[in-house]
Amino acid sequence: MTTINWGILGAGNISGQFAHDLVLNNSEKKEIVHIIASIGCSSTTKGESFIKDNMISKENNGGIAAVVQNYDDFYKNKDIDVVYIGTPHIFHKEQVLKCLENGLHVLCEKPMNINAKESRELQEAAKKNNLFLMEAVWTRFLPIVNDIRHKVFDQILIGDVYRLMVDFSYDAKLETCPPGSRIRDKNLGAGALLDIGIYCITYARLFLDQKLGKEHTPFDLKSMVTVDPKDEVDYNTSILMKYSTGKQAILTCTNYIDTPMPFARLEGTKGYIELFAENPARLRSYKVHLKAGESYEVKDDSEYLGFIYEADAVAKDIKAGKTENAVMPFDETLLVMDTMDQVRSDNGFSYPMD
């Protein structure tokens, strides 16, 4: 049995989802025990509510009572092996650096940063300190996603793949959303591209290319970004990708509507695959339609929200002394960050931090 001690930085919604999967894993007595040692946040009351709301107890936490700490004490906590950072991306650079400087491995929520320049600084810091650092692109670790990749790349189920269409949209109710929220505030890195467009690009990387990072198959990029005149961020972005192999991706994201289902379709010469989910980041089912006449559906009915799979991968890597993950190497983070930088640059859209 392997035990890993987590510190969770940030007591918001995404951190709660991450904690849910760790608690469920421990309750089911799996091979890896994920102990939540500490919650780092600005408010003790908020941290205590986080522990209560996510039902973190000694019984499902390896006999350990999770503590709430302010940021400074959190970074210096020697009981923590690895930190999950679930704060808005505007804070990631400083928080990742603080963790690395204090000898803590890091799993940082996507996007890693506002731009690729910041990400490269973090990569160098992780190398300097010989510590593990990974962007939490949890979609890459979902068993159902890798099942599709196996069918597409290994079994050639739908023949030669030539096109992928992905739409990740959700109604952010902008008219009632406070101007200072992370959804609307440019100073907090608001906008559709960094928040949800990154998943569209991730699916194009997953299903159109088997290679990663520096070894990726080259692609050309065209994009359109509509910048809101009042908030000065993108709520509507479209991207076209064309790989040197001829494969194409049509990627769209917006904060004006909820994505109609299926949210994606992968097309090949022998058929196509449709993707379904309440949250497109967390694929729940897919339908295969073959030209030969066969059609069937595959569902993932797991109680896990989906974060346990990346958590397990991180735990195994750290225990093995690795500083990068083979499924989500840091060069892949840089490739996607560079891609989003290009989209913004081509459309004259920048953040104050650029």
Automatic annotation (TrEMBL):
Show the SUPFAM superfamilies listed in the entry. Glyceraldehyde-3-phosphate dehydrogenase-like, C-terminal domain, NAD(P)-binding Rossmann-fold domains
Q: Which InterPro entries match?
A: Gfo/Idh/MocA-like_OxRdtase_N, Gfo/Idh/MocA_domain, GFO_IDH_MocA-like_dom, NAD(P)-bd_dom_sf
Enzyme Commission code:
1.1.1.179
Q: Which reaction does it catalyse?
A: D-xylose + NADP(+) = D-xylono-1,5-lactone + NADPH + H(+)
Gfo/Idh/MocA-like oxidoreductase N-terminal domain boundaries: 4-134
Any one Gene Ontology MF annotation carried by this entry is: nucleotide binding
Q: Give all residue intervals belonging to the GFO/IDH/MocA-like oxidoreductase domain.
A: 154-274
- Name of the featured protein: D-xylose 1-dehydrogenase (NADP(+), D-xylono-1,5-lactone-forming)
Q: What is the lineage of its organism?
A: Eukaryota, Fungi, Dikarya, Ascomycota, Saccharomycotina
